Amino acid sequence: MKLYTRTGDEGKTSVIGGRLFKDDIRVEAYGTTDELNSFIGQAVTQLDQELFADIVGELEKIQHELFDCGGDLAMVKVSDDRPYKAKQEIVDFLEERIDEYIKEAPELERFILPGGSPAAATLHICRTVTRRAERLTTRLQQESQTNPIVLKYLNRLSDYFFAVARVVNARLNVRDVEYERSALVFRNGKRKEDKRDTK
């Protein structure tokens, strides 16, 4: 089996249901989930397999889910014989884990900078790449048909990476790096309510 096919030499790639230019928003969206998957793999290699056995297991689970999401994003047309793979249950799982990790990490009062331990820093990279994937998927969803669960999943996944990065630092007894000009923006670990939204 050859790794190269030459079929993309003119700037197009195959998706599920056709061919698109490689800079098409759909290709950008699922390509960014692939980029994210690679950073997750890097994070796994930086985590002690015993101390972080739960997190490593979850990250590997997420890698498979991102493959599913990438497949859904690459699908130009959905059909009965090829349905979407990402389901609501993967969003629900992330919410459950976020709620637990918020309890484990020290109470948050100020904005923090990406960093602390190497693994936490990589998880913050995962968070920001997830946000980019979310922005691209938002654009795609406005222009074409796609699985709405993927957008919800990416939105929740960035919060998951933030929560997990803080837990990793906490378990390693490494302090989060607070943004030095940050006001007190969190109450009981949650973002303070914006007065503009209380009407």
Automatic annotation (TrEMBL):
Pfam families: Cob_adeno_trans (PF01923). InterPro entries: CblAdoTrfase-like (IPR016030), CblAdoTrfase-like_sf (IPR036451), PduO-typ (IPR029499). It catalyses: 2 cob(II)yrinate a,c diamide + reduced [electron-transfer flavoprotein] + 2 ATP = 2 adenosylcob(III)yrinate a,c-diamide + 2 triphosphate + oxidized [electron-transfer flavoprotein] + 3 H(+); 2 cob(II)alamin + reduced [electron-transfer flavoprotein] + 2 ATP = 2 adenosylcob(III)alamin + 2 triphosphate + oxidized [electron-transfer flavoprotein] + 3 H(+). PANTHER family: CORRINOID ADENOSYLTRANSFERASE, CORRINOID ADENOSYLTRANSFERASE MMAB. NCBIfam families: PduO_Nterm. Homotrimer. This is Corrinoid adenosyltransferase.
